[in-house]
Write a structure and sequence with these properties.
alpha/beta, Rossmann fold, single chain, 7-stranded mixed sheet, 20 strands, 2 domains
């Protein structure tokens, strides 16, 4: 349950702490690097470890509130009201929500996007966040600031207020390519702010199974060694599930790899560390060159696409089927998106192969696009009907039963390896419930994320046919 902080009684009897609040800003002008996920779960883990933590969202998208299940229609005041008010006339305590013990949130709203225009030309506008945080510095041990994916007044306010800056960087090629420019931009902001802040790089969305991620992380360590944090946030579906349920990972699954990663990150940030400042002459004196030759780069590109295809097909670390609730998009729409992604990746692999052939290079791809699609597990619509594909390596028989066949199991056909089972059913438009029967045991389809409870206290998988 999320509670407005001003609705709670004062914290009587609290012993004043000598520690001064440390403010950490998460900044990256590139979106999709897991910045908000890091901000939410870092703050939650610090609170879980007994540190009084404030999470401040200065991104007008307001995703911190969404990811922590704070009802948008109940947010009467946000950080926008604090930053637009004259200095000293409003306090962050007026807008904070208590998320958990030791964990408060100062949410954002879309109105924050107009702040830069409203404060244009007003002296001291770049110090408004620092001023607001200074008045609650005795109430918290740590403040985490989630910044917008752009450079403007809001990010400048965060830099002015911060003691440390953490740059979340996805372990992908384009993120690595833009990291040097991102560091240069942070250095320019630091000079404009005229303050010394510690800058650290945090590798996120790291998937050790892919060659690209391993190479990018190694390149980051070589180029930015002392700036790169020891902690690396691994790709973990539990983090995405936690956000969809409006919970930090500390509440959703404290046994997950995601929780352990953020616990390690919290310990690293909370522990003593030498102050590291940027020296562009050291890191950017020469352009960062990729060590691969042209031929090796093309072969590596093909391998990357193949690995990505394999991850989609194999359903790596699929979450438990989600109980049906308010779903904004239909199953069919999601299935079409996944199919489109697979087709796009396969087409790109074919294009890379053609480019390699034009240069006299022989790059091998395992299987055609259609074969890749046929190996994709789950449910999808085909010209012949609805195709169900399941992967059960140790099964002797797999059947499918549902509303469409009176719940009488229809045996699925297995391939030569006897681990992939398929069934194509000519279903009319509608919504159907079904289950798989694996060696006589009834269960939900592990490759279909959409399900709903049945009268027997278990889950039925759900498919929609348009």
């Amino acid at each position: 349950m999320r509670v407005r902080q001003d609705a709670l009684p004062p914290r009587w009897g609290e012993v004043a702490r000598k520690q001064i609040m440390r403010t950490i800003a998460l900044i990256n002008q590139k979106g999709g690097v897991g910045k908000t996920t890091c901000a939410i779960n870092l703050a939650a883990c610090m609170a879980h470890m007994g540190q009084r933590t404030l999470l401040v969202d200065v991104d007008p998208q307001g995703h911190c509130a969404v990811g922590l299940a704070v009802p948008d229609n109940q947010i009467e005041k946000s950080i926008y009201d604090i930053l637009r008010a004259p200095a000293g006339t409003a306090t962050i305590r007026d807008v904070t929500w208590q998320i958990a013990t030791n964990f408060d949130l100062a949410p954002s709203m879309i109105t924050l996007a107009a702040l830069e225009t409203e404060l244009h030309g007003i002296p001291g506008r770049q110090d408004r966040l620092a001023d607001a945080l200074s008045r609650v510095s005795k109430d918290y041990d740590y403040c985490i600031i989630d910044c917008p994916p752009n450079v403007g007044l809001l990010t400048f306010n965060a830099m002015r207020a911060a003691d440390e800056v953490v740059i979340p960087v996805e372990t992908g090629y384009f993120s690595l390519h833009g990291l040097a420019k991102q560091l240069e931009l942070i250095e320019q902001l630091r000079k404009q702010c005229r303050q010394d802040v510690r800058v650290r790089i945090l590798a996120t969305l790291y998937d050790i199974r892919t060659k690209l991620a391993r190479e990018v992380l190694a390149e980051m360590r070589e180029q930015f060694g002392e700036l790169l944090m020891d902690t690396c946030i691994n790709f973990n579906t539990k983090l995405k599930e936690a956000a969809s349920f409006g919970q930090p990972i500390t509440e959703y699954d404290p046994a997950s790899k995601g929780f352990k990663d953020f616990q390690k990150l919290s310990s690293e940030l909370m522990g003593p560390a030498p102050r590291v400042t940027l020296d562009l002459s050291k890191y950017l004196s020469e352009p960062v060159a990729h060590p691969l030759t042209a031929e090796a780069a093309i072969e590596n590109a093909v391998e990357i696409v193949e690995e990505t295809l394999a991850e989609i097909q194999d359903g790596v670390e699929l979450p438990e089927p989600a109980v049906a609730g308010p779903i904004r998009r239909s199953n069919r729409a999601v299935q079409q998106d996944v199919r489109s992604a697979v087709e796009t990746l396969a087409r790109r692999a074919d294009e890379v192969k053609a480019a390699a052939a034009s240069h006299g290079m022989n790059v091998r791809r395992n299987g055609t696009t259609q074969q890749k699609l046929e190996e994709f597990y789950g449910v999808r619509q085909t010209p012949e009907g609805i195709l169900f594909v399941a992967h059960f390596p140790n099964a002797n028989s797999v059947g499918i039963a549902g509303d469409f066949n009176g719940w009488a199991p229809h045996m699925m056909q297995s391939d030569d390896a006897a681990d992939t089972y398929r069934a194509t059913l000519p279903l009319k438009p509608g919504r159907y419930r079904y289950r798989l029967v694996v060696d006589g045991r009834w269960q939900a389809d592990p490759h279909n994320m959409f399900s709903e409870p049945n009268p027997f206290g278990e889950l039925d998988s759900v498919v929609e046919v348009a």
